[in-house]
């Protein structure tokens, strides 16, 4: 699995193939998908973690079913920019997944993504705590993926 700089990801992926965004939590994996033009990220699914092999099988099924060429994984950096245990866990997840199914991977700094999504769901959509619980992780995955897509698109317009 090549771990790539986000800005190198488009060149490594066939045109017209979508990407998946992942928000790796302790108990869940939020999954989002881009469209084939890689313009829009949409929440897709919430995988409740069980065993790594089962979680990976579900993720691979999603990847293969959508002809995904890359994963953008949210990297939970510390506020001072260093990587802590959660970031190391995300990197380990990517390495372990690569042993089963090689795929291009880029990491995206996800600091405060969950809190931004929570704020959006409360203030803009007025969702109750119970309703938020079911959508926050996959919406955070879409937030992560959309941020990465926007960064790639913005870089392409400046070159």
Automatic annotation (TrEMBL):
- What does UniProt give as GO cellular component? cytosol
Q: Keywords on this record?
A: Cytoplasm, Hydrolase, Nuclease, Ribosome biogenesis
BP GO terms, sorted: rRNA 5'-end processing
This molecule's function is given as: Could be a nuclease involved in processing of the 5'-end of pre-16S rRNA.
Q: Which CDD domains match?
A: YqgF
Q: Where do the YqgF/RNase H-like domain residues begin and end?
A: 17-117
Q: Where in the cell is it found?
A: Cytoplasm
Q: Which family does it belong to?
A: Belongs to the YqgF HJR family.
InterPro entries attached to this UniProt entry = RNaseH-like_sf, YqgF, YqgF/RNaseH-like_dom, YqgF/RNaseH-like_dom_sf
Origin organism of this chain?
Brevundimonas goettingensis
Which GO-annotated molecular functions does the record name?
hydrolase activity, acting on ester bonds; nuclease activity
Q: Which domain of life is it from?
A: Bacteria
Entry's EC annotation: 3.1.-.-
Q: What is the lineage of its organism?
A: Bacteria, Pseudomonadati, Pseudomonadota, Alphaproteobacteria, Caulobacterales
Query: Which Pfam family is one of those matched by this entry?
Result: RuvX
Gene3D superfamilies (alphabetical) = YqgF/RNase H-like domain
**What is the name attached to this protein's record?**
Putative pre-16S rRNA nuclease
Catalytic class of the enzyme: hydrolase
